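As the next step, I selected for study a record pairing a protein sequence with its C-alpha cells, which the following lines show:
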Amino acid sequence: MSGLKEELYQQCLDYVQKRMAAAEQGIKEAQQASKDDTKSSAGDKYETGRAMMQQETDRNMGQLNEANKLKVALNTISPTNSSTIAEAGSVVITNNGNFYIAISAGTLLVNGSTYFAISPASPIGLNLKGKKAGYEFTLNGKAYRIESIE
C-alpha cells in the first residue's frame, strides 16, 4: 500500500506544480502585455490598461503564493511513513469514501479507485485527524466509519 501513498503524493505534487506554472505564466503574460501597451493620445485608456495588467499580475502572484503554501505543506509529508492514526500523509478508507490527508487537491484516481485529497484543516480532515480504525462520526448528515488507515 506504500506505493499507493507515493502515487497519491506524486499526484498532489503534480497538482501544485501545475498551479504554480499557470500562475507564473499568467504573471509573465500580464507583464508582457503591460510592456507592449504603448502610450497613445488617449492617456486614460493607457492608464486603465496598465492598472488592469497590474491587477492581473497581483491576482496571479496571490495564486502563486497559495500554490507555494501547498508545496510547503506537501514537503512536511513523507509518503513512506505508516501509522495507525490518521494524520497528514495518511490514506483513510471509510464507508463513505477514501481520503488522502495532505492538501486540498480534489479527486485523485489510482488503480481504478477514487481518493479525495483533503487538507488536515478541512472539516472532514479535522474529524479524521488523530483517529483510529473503527472511529465513527457524522458530518453534514452523513455517517462515516473509518475502516482502515495506512
Q: What stands out?
A: The mean pLDDT is 91.
